[in-house]
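Q: Structure tokens for this one, please.
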Amino acid sequence: MKRTQLYLDDDLWNALHVRAQSQRTSVSELVRQAARERYLGDLDERRKAMQAVVGIWKDRDEFYDPEKYIRSLRRGRRLERLERLRKS
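A: Here is the predicted structure, written as tokens:
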């Protein structure tokens, strides 16, 4: 966990303080919870989205021979240039 400092206007601070007291928690916990909900979203929704893409490329031909596929991406003279630079 990382520590941070926030500047809150008086109205927001008062609302958070009242809510924290009524829920018997801290203002920090309320802020963390709100940030999680706003920026991370619902964990179940994220999990469903990730499950939806699992295996999406399983039938693609280029992945049957990964070494061949990677070598096709590396075609060119890069290795030759590096070898020449090494010898220089």
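A few notes: The chain has a mean pLDDT of 86. The radius of gyration is 26 Å.
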